[in-house]
Amino acid sequence: MKKVTFYLMMMVLSLGVIPTQVFAAEKNPTSISNTPKEVPAEVKVMLNRLEEIKAMDKSSLNSAERKELRKEVRTIKADLKSSGNGVYLSIGAIIIIVLLLILLL
Asked: Is the dihedral of CA 71, 76, 79, 80 positive or negative?
């Protein structure tokens, strides 16, 4: 008897997923990709500084100056990585994901 209710529940859940897949395929993905993302001014300044460092003639620099440039490049790259490229989940989303995992597994 438990197997019948389990199979019935799985069938109902799988039928509930099919319409969302159909609607997701109908949307036009080109309209989303046409909107350019605005880059903050701080990020533009850091990117411009990286371009300046790349364009420099480093053959005339001594080892201490090269070391300073390498440190500067590393710090700029670390700042750019931490400037908001992460994925944030709310507590409600985490609870829903955990519940779905428990139900499906």
From this structure: negative
Using the CB atoms, write b or e for 51-81: b if 16+ within 10 Å. Answer: eeeeeeeeeeeeeeeeeeeeeeeeebeeeee
Vertex 98 angle, CA 81 and 14, to 5°: 110
* Residue 94's pLDDT band (cuts 50, 70, 90): confident
What tens digit of pLDDT does each residue of 3-27 get? 888 888 887 777 665 555 555 555 5
Q: What end-to-end distance do the CA atoms of the chain give, in Å?
A: 20
Phi-psi region of 67 (alpha: psi -120 to 50; beta: other; left: phi over 0): alpha
The helix (H) or strand (E) run that includes residue 52 is: helix 41-55
Coarse DSSP helix, strand, coil percentages of the chain, rounded to the nearest 5 percent: 75, 0, 25
Element (H, E) at 17: helix 2-26
